[in-house]
Design a protein that fits this description.
Layout (H helix, E strand, L loop, with lengths): L5 H10 L16 E5 L5 E6 L6 E8 L13 H8 L11 H8 L8 E5 L4 E9 L3 H16 L5 H18 L2 H13 L14 H6 L2 H11 L5 E7 L3 H11 L24 E7 L6 E9 L9 H24 L7 E11 L2 E13 L4 H18 L3 H20 L6 H14 L6 H12 L6 H11 L7 E8 L9 H13 L26 E7 L4 E6 L4 E6 L7 E8 L10 H12 L2 E2 L4 H7 L5 E7 L3 E8 L4 H13 L1 E2 L2 H16 L5 H13 L19 H11 L7 E6 L3 H11 L21 E8 L6 E10 L4 H25 L7 E9 L2 E12 L4 H17 L3 H18 L3 H14 L7 H6 L3 H13 L3 E8 L2
Parallel strand pairs: 2-6, 7-11, 14-20, 21-25
Antiparallel strand pairs: 1-2, 3-5, 3-6, 4-5, 8-10, 8-11, 9-10, 12-13, 13-14, 15-18, 15-20, 16-19, 17-18, 22-24, 22-25, 23-24
Helix pairs in contact: 2-8, 4-9, 10-12, 10-15, 11-15, 11-16, 12-14, 17-22, 19-23, 24-25, 24-26, 24-29, 25-29
Bound molecules: zinc ion.
């Protein structure tokens, strides 16, 4: 839509501007160096120092699959893959080897994506110690922009990989989507340009077609370079000018033209089904023209975005309340205002829901009705005040953290500025503007309601409705006529306004708090840099102050016991304990009322039972610390039943579990857990038949038992707190809790021993094959073994990537992961490999999985070990700046007395190929190997 809404009109009135275009411009982050070369290449360079000593590099292309002709469907994405298979300065696969030697990992740090109208490549977290490494990363961007080799042999090898990717992504939703897209986009190329393309094109295109596509579209005038991090801005700018000085745009170069989406006068109704669909999804879109890029430069646009965000927030709160009503036909629903499916030129108010069995049309009616209720009556002042408080609280949180904002945040912002002309004010600027704008009475609930009326339509024009259902013999499906009648019926209904159930009193009545406790002892831990308090009720509290984030405090409390203390009869209750408590209320507040009371506060607290511990955990920010402590107190003492919320959770679970076996990946996942744990009931995946054994009363009884001993818990606070303020709150809200009795966990069974093979076949809509390998052995719990288990798996990942993906083209993705796992009083080294394979090459892939492991028990490549060490050391530097990491290592130290932090660097530096080979040999000789393979039934 153009920016001419009622909201803007109201706003123009106060700013005395004649049109949205004359409104004040959105400022541009003054710390970004921007420029454009004469050949059209655009660049953005921003110095940013968080995390320290690393930088991110991006190249964004303004082209994607929408530029393809019918005979080229899939080439834009194919080209993206070829960027990693040979270029002028990085022939063959040397790019991956080079970046890995910098400690940059393919997949997470080095990657790319192709969508409809863009292709973006990135190299992230590059260490900035050596200038030459940064220069080389820029050279990689240059090679991607105009120096790809596109060698015939390499192209042929990649065809199989793309097939695997297509197979991997093929799901019921994806298959339906491919079929119905032309109906959702009549008269537009958007209907036939999913980036994955056609496998007939992928298999058969001539080399020249890909090379032509590359030269036609990859040109400096379609390219933006973005560099963010600890870099010398002048140096990088000069280098860009030098590297791209000869890049040219050919005369008569093809223009990138925005693809349009025609309006539809008559509503579009689409129905489709698939045998592997597990439940019906119902969607409604009310289309409108997207804001043109040229209208995104004034503060009218920021207002527009703010209003849409608030409307989305308020609407979703209402939908979530709907699911708790006994007669609600859907189990989950959501709405947002944004792109219509994936087109840049058309937006929509989009609504989606998962329907209960047989309730497709009722769900459609309910969704449409809630949207019309907003259109007819708007939101209440209470809803508006809460949403606005929440918006400002999030913005303030971002503002307080502005000096610790990651490179990736700016990387995305600048990419969006290049591709879509999204504003790029600094965080300070945005905060100041929004603070001012949102305080103006002219943008109050009435204006937002008028705006919502513009976004939510009540006519057939530009309305699109679809239902995707499970296909099953004997089932009757809704017709598109019935879908149209359903909409017409809701339009004829007389609706009533929404009733807000928020409570006005405070969550906690402080007069009812027991007497505060006291700190009775304090000691310091030098190694980890924390202070440990002992409270008068026996509780231990560990305080580690950090400044990794200005605006974050992480919290956890734990004590021994957990699910290990309960038997098989409680299987369903144990499985559902965490979910049921998360859906419960506190005192006389229902779950929804608690949520409403917390709008505008950055606090979350959750309870959790795992095998050996009961825990409470959460995060907050300094300004909301007291509310957070009240939540901790209430969760430990006053969890209360909210039957409506728990019923909604059970309905949702029932729908998700009922047909989960229609999905091959889900069947496979269950087989893996059952196999590696020897069909132990504790690790059995939940099934729909288990739900009837759930008892909410029993779960509340278990909650009472598990949280009866707060004085036996160890509590941790890690982050940027003011100790002088925190300690009195700890005494008040934790020190007052009862002491309780000390408990321990019970030993429970772990992984199944021996060599176990579980090979099975399955009929599938798209034939797929997956292999999972799992090895384990008992091992001493210490930092050396922790490092060894991780490093060995990283080496194997590289081995597999080369042998299975690159050489044999037998899989799109394959990887290994390893860890030292502590289970009660025991510890195990575990290693797993996961490989979704080409069904025609599954025998070969399985052989290579075994071969790679075996070969490396004899000899490990020194070069690979060096790369793994570099990566681990680089990663560790970053971990040391995260509150989460410290929570983990301190927690391990408290319970086991094992320090996994201090010796880490030395343990990595001491790694050798021989040590890794020897470790793999022990693991192989332990003879605990489970193998689970699923292949398609003929
Ligand atoms: Zn891909």
């Amino acid at each position: 839509m153009r920016l001419k809404s009622f909201l803007v009109a109201a706003f123009l009135f106060v700013t005395a501007a004649a049109s949205a275009q004359q409104m004040p411009k959105i400022p541009v982050d003054p710390t970004v160096r921007m420029g454009k070369l004469s050949n059209g290449l655009t660049y953005y360079i921003k110095h940013n120092n968080w995390p320290e000593h690393v930088a991110n590099f991006y190249i964004a292309q303004r082209v994607g699959s929408i530029q393809e002709d019918e005979s080229q469907r899939g080439l834009a994405h194919f080209l993206e893959h070829m960027a990693f298979n040979g270029s002028e300065h990085f022939p063959d696969s040397t790019l991956l080897e080079y970046t890995r030697s910098l400690g940059v990992e393919f997949g997470s740090d080095l990657n790319a994506y192709t969508s409809i109208d863009r292709t973006v490549y990135r190299i992230c977290d590059v260490p900035t110690k050596r200038q030459s490494a940064l220069d080389s990363c820029l050279l990689i961007l240059k090679d991607w922009s105009n120096g790809l080799t596109l060698d015939g042999n390499e192209i042929d090898k990649e065809r199989g990989v793309i097939h695997q990717e297509w197979q991997l992504r093929s799901s019921a939703q994806q298959r339906i989507f491919e079929r119905v897209l032309p109906q959702l986009y009549p008269g537009s190329k958007y209907g036939t340009r999913l980036p994955i393309g056609l496998m007939s094109v992928v298999d058969n295109f001539k080399y020249k077609e890909l090379r032509d596509y590359y030269h036609k579209w990859y040109r400096p005038d379609n390219q933006g370079i973005i560099i963010v991090g600890d870099v010398d801005v002048d140096h990088m700018e000069n280098l860009i000018k030098q590297y791209w000085k000869d890049a040219k745009v050919p005369a008569n170069a093809a223009k990138v033209v925005d693809e349009q989406v025609p309006d539809n006068d008559k509503a579009i109704y689409v129905f489709d089904k698939d045998k592997e669909m597990q439940f019906s999804t119902v969607e409604i879109a009310m289309k409108q023209d997207a804001v043109p890029d040229s209208d995104k430069t004034t503060i009218a646009y920021m207002m527009d975005q703010y209003a849409k965000q608030l409307i989305t927030m308020m609407f979703n709160q209402r939908l979530s309340e709907e699911t708790q009503k006994a007669d609600c036909p859907f189990v989950d629903a959501g709405g947002y205002y944004g792109q219509y499916i994936y087109s840049k030129t058309k937006d929509a108010f989009n609504l989606t829901a998962y329907a209960k069995d047989g309730k497709d049309l009722e769900t459609l009616a309910a969704l449409y009705r809630e949207a019309q209720r907003v259109r007819d009556f708007g939101f209440t002042p209470g809803e508006f005040d809460r949403a606005k408080a929440e918006y400002m609280s999030q913005l303030e949180s971002q503002y307080n953290n502005r000096n610790k904002t990651k490179n990736s945040y700016y990387g995305n912002e600048l990419t969006e500025h290049y591709l879509e002309n999204e504003p790029m004010p600094s965080i300070e600027q945005e905060y100041q503007i929004m603070k001012q704008l949102t305080s103006m009475p002219v943008i109050g609930v009435d204006q937002i309601n008028a705006f919502a009326k513009e976004l939510i339509s009540n006519t057939d024009t530009n309305l699109v409705v679809d239902i995707f259902a499970q296909e099953k013999a004997g089932k009757t499906y809704p017709t598109t006529d019935e879908m149209a009648q359903t909409i017409a019926k809701v339009r004829a209904e007389k609706l009533t306004p929404y009733v807000d159930n928020a409570k006005n009193e405070p969550l906690l009545d402080e007069t009812k708090l027991p007497k505060a406790g006291k700190v009775v002892a304090t000691k310091e831990n030098k190694t980890f840099g924390y202070k440990e308090l002992t409270l008068s009720n026996g509780a231990r509290v560990i305080l580690k102050k950090t400044d990794f984030k200005e605006n974050e405090i992480r919290f956890q409390g734990m004590s021994k016991g957990g699910t290990s203390l309960y038997g098989k009869n409680d299987y369903a209750n144990l499985q559902l304990f965490n979910g049921a408590l998360a859906s419960s209320g506190l005192g006389d507040f229902t779950n929804q009322q608690v949520q409403k009371a917390l709008y505008g506060k950055q606090c979350n607290v959750g309870l959790g039972l795992n095998r050996n511990y009961q825990s409470i955990s959460g995060t907050t920010v300094p300004k909301d610390l007291e509310t957070f402590m009240q939540l901790v107190y209430l969760n430990m003492t006053s969890a209360s039943k909210d039957t409506a919320a728990v019923n909604a959770m059970m309905n949702n679970l029932e729908l998700m579990l009922k047909n989960k076996d229609l999905n091959p990946e889900s069947v496979y996942g269950d087989s893996v857990s059952n196999t590696i744990y020897g069909h132990n009931w504790r690790n059995k995946p939940l099934e729909v038949k288990d739900l009837k054994n759930f008892s909410y009363d029993r779960v509340m009884q278990m909650w009472k038992e598990r949280y009866a001993n707060p004085g036996q818990f160890v509590y941790y606070f890690i982050g940027n707190f003011d100790e002088a303020k925190l300690i009195p709150l700890i005494e008040k809200y934790i020190g007052c809790l009862p002491k309780g009795k000390a408990e321990n966990w019970k030993e429970t069974p772990n992984y199944a021993n021996g060599n176990i093979k579980n090979f099975f076949t399955r009929k599938m809509e798209t034939p797929k094959a997956i292999a999972f390998e799992f090895w384990h052995m008992p091992m001493a719990y210490n930092v050396q073994n922790d490092v060894l288990a991780d490093a060995a798996a990283q080496v194997l990942s590289m081995v597999y990537l080369k042998s299975i993906r690159e050489d044999a083209s037998a899989a799109y993705s394959v990887g290994a992961a390893g860890a030292l796992a502590r289970k009660g009083d025991k510890a195990f080294a575990v290693m797993q490999a996961y490989c979704p394979m080409d069904p025609n090459k599954s025998d070969e892939a399985i052989k290579l999985l075994a071969q790679g492991f075996k070969d490396n028990t004899v000899k490990v490549d020194a070069d690979k070990v060096q790369k793994v060490k570099d990566y681990m050391l680089k990663n560790h530097e970053e971990e040391l700046k995260s509150n989460n990491y410290w929570m983990d290592v301190i927690d391990e130290y408290v319970w086991t007395n094992v320090d996994l932090m201090s010796g880490y660097k030395a343990a990595v530096q001491a790694l050798t190929p021989e040590k890794i080979a020897n470790y793999l040999k022990q693991l192989l000789n332990a003879n605990n190997h489970a193998e689970v393979v699923m292949t398609p039934a003929k």
